[in-house]
Amino acid sequence: MAAGLFLVVVLSLFSLFAANVELAGGLENIDPNNQDVLKAATFAVNSFNQQSKKDYEYKLVKVVSAKYQIVAGVIYTLNVEIGKTDCKKGTTNDIQSCSLMQDSHLAQTLFCTFRVLEVPWEHVENLLSFSCMAH
After folding, report:
1. In the prediction, which pLDDT does 7 show?
2. Lower Cβ count inside 10 Å, N or C end of the chain?
3. Confidence of residue 20 (pLDDT cuts 50, 70, 90)
4. CA neighbours within 13 Å on the CB side: how many for 61?
5. Which residue blocks in 28-102 are alpha helix, DSSP H?
6. pLDDT at residue 5 above 70?
7. Helix or strand or coil: residue 108?
8. Contact of 77 with 68, CB cutoff 8 Å
9. What are the start-end ranges of the E strands in 16-98?
10. In which family does this protein belong, per the annotation (predicted)?
């Protein structure tokens, strides 16, 4: 009888503990202004600039929403707005110093979804996928 009661108590405590533990693999919302999110978004935009065939650099305007998933590292799924700057590709190493295009004929804002894998303990950042459309 005592063993049965002990088992019930242990299982009850375990279920309380398990309910508060985040499981690996679940997709969770995260604050778009979180420093890790902003770091991942900046990395994603820089990678976008390297891969795109566009003449001008783009920079982060706003992280609209963000989610993360724990894997062997962290995958961030980011919905962001990026804007065309007045800096031609290859002319600067500091995109943040570039201004957004003001001329309505040249200005362009894109809405992008980026998926970024970060494995901090291995110093790995990879842009897994992205898709962008004119906003």
Report:
1. 35
2. N
3. very low
4. 20
5. 35-51
6. no
7. coil
8. yes
9. 27-29, 56-71, 73-88
10. Belongs to the cystatin family.
Amino acid in position 95: I
Of 61 and 23, the structure prediction assigns the larger pLDDT to 61
Residue pair 98/56 in contact by the 8 Å Cβ criterion:
no
Q: pLDDT for 28-87, tens place per residue?
A: 999 999 999 999 999 999 999 999 999 999 999 999 999 999 999 999 999 999 999 999
Alpha carbon distance 104, 32 (integer Å): 28
Between 3.40.50.150, 3.30.43.10, 3.10.450.10, 3.90.1150.10, what CATH number should domain 29-134 receive?
Answer: 3.10.450.10
| The two structure tokens encoding residue 68 | 């993360």
Question: Half-sphere exposure (CA, 13 Å, Cβ side) for 3?
Answer: 0
In which residue are the tokens 């003001």 written? 102
Q: Any idea what the Cα angle at residue 36 is, between residues 35 and 40, rounded to 5°?
A: 115
Q: In terms of pLDDT, which residue wins out, 135 or 113?
A: 113
Side-chain-side CA neighbours of residue 81 (13 Å):
8
Residue with tokens 């783009």: 58
Tokens encoding 131: 């898709």
